[in-house]
Amino acid sequence: MLKRIDFELDDIKLEEARKIQYKLGSNILVYRVFINSYAKKGFIIFDKEKNPEDIIKEINHGARIKKEEEITVEDLIKQSLG
Prior knowledge:
This protein is α+β, with helices and mostly antiparallel strands. Helix content is 35%, strand content 35%. It is globular and about 35 Å long.
């Protein structure tokens, strides 16, 4: 099982969003990560072993969890295919 969290951010610049997205994406427990610096929101899909609060701390920039849900790998693949 995987976990998806959608979050909102306070002010964040494009370059900072890219750096955070790269850092999180290089973690083996993270499957997908997207941060939109213009809309000030994003999502991350990761293995349940990783604590969501730790991810929020890594993101910083006033990140607030808006939605949390569990998804299967099958669901992730279906979402990826469109």
